[in-house]
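Hi U.,

Before I forget, here's the chain from the pilot set. I'm dumping it here mostly so it's searchable later in email.
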Amino acid sequence: MSDNPPDLPPKGAGPLEEQAMTEVHRSPVLAAIFSLILPGAGHIYARQTTRGIGYFLLTATFLGLLYWTRTTHEFEVFTGMLPALATLAALFWLWVIGSAVAAASGRNFAPTLGLLIVLGYTYLLGWQVTEVNMRKFLTEFPDTFNIFRRVIWPWRAAIERPEELQIVATRWANPCPDDPAEMPEQVEGSGDELWITVDPACGEFATYAIVEGRGALQPGTEITVRGGGFDPNERVEIWWEDPIGNEFQPIFQSEKVNAMADANGYFSVTFTAPQFNTPSIAVGTQYHGIQARQVVAVGNPRLTQNFILAINRMIVTIFQALMATTFGIVLAIPFSFLAARNLMWGNPITRFLYYAIRFVLNITRSIEPIIWAVIAVVWVGLGPFAGVIALTVHTIASLAKLYSEAIESIDPGPIEAITATGANRIQTIVYAIIPQVVPPFLSFTIYRWDINVRMSTIIGFVGGGGIGQLLFQWINQTLWYDAGMAVWLIAITVSVMDYASGELRKRFV
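Structure:
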């Protein structure tokens, strides 16, 4: 009779024999039933506990995401994707059952199909949750094409010529006078002389009237304004002046009344007399002015004030990044040595200091610079200094982590050699560690300056100064040409910085 327990392989058995003896197969039917009742239970029954728990958690995640989507999104969206999601969930459940049967039978079960089902479920849910709308993306692009066109090529806003305003006016009467001699005179000019005429020279304003028991706006007299002597192919604005000198542009068909002069400087535009409340004390005919205005460029081209302002703010942005990087280096270097595991693991005190500094650096780095900028704006007010503070805080945390990792990856040989001579901790750092970390320190510093230039444009959106603040204002004012200039200046500056940093790395790293 053998001395070995019945479930153990005999003494001297080889690896394959030992594996065959220790694998105890389970009932595939029970594994399938358990997985049908609770996903993952069949794997636990087949002694694949970790895999079974994983499948159970994955299935629970599926159901949790379904519940979350149902409670946080519109019901129509949820019901639209519910059949597909339910089908994928059912397929995954069946796949888990098949995997449990294979595990109980001791057979391999390829995970490819299950992975595809998980990916399909994830991306389908993500497509719906993020409200991806390709039809809207493709059909509404023409509506925003003008914005892209202005941002992509905005240089017309960088050059300007001095302008002067040309104005010519005529009169229009309300109501029409009884005496024809009191009608406003209309005279056409000749040559380059500016002139306009209005036809008819009198009429009625638009008024509200009761029509079939409801108030309705009755349009005023239809007016045709003609003019000549204007700069060819340039816009002409039509303005209205009431008897007491108030000026405004009439609105016709929801747009301000404008015209375009033809190649000979002539224009013609038709609109209806606007709604105008005549003062109750007015008696008889009131005479209004109709003006044609055209802005004419004169003189030599020059840089616009907005372009000059953008260049000035871009320079401020570069110096923001420079100051923040400099302050960050000064404070990050000592923190990096305190956050290096190979230097601080010697005793419990330094080990505690290592964990504390690592924790603070991780928290500081996890908060985006734009959040630090908001805090800095509250602290020191709007302006570039707030941006410098925000960038400095984030730079300290980021560089200290990078520096500490460079210290941890150094060659321990020089350290052991210096220590063997009886050198203390400071001497070891100066002669064995610093020479090894100078090249990666320089590389990380140059890269961080490049990052700070780009980050400084974003923190300007919350009042951190620099060109970002200017860009935010122009976007809010829909000045797309000016915003495009700012974007181009940022892109050019970052490109130059990238080239310069690459050259510095070649020379010094």
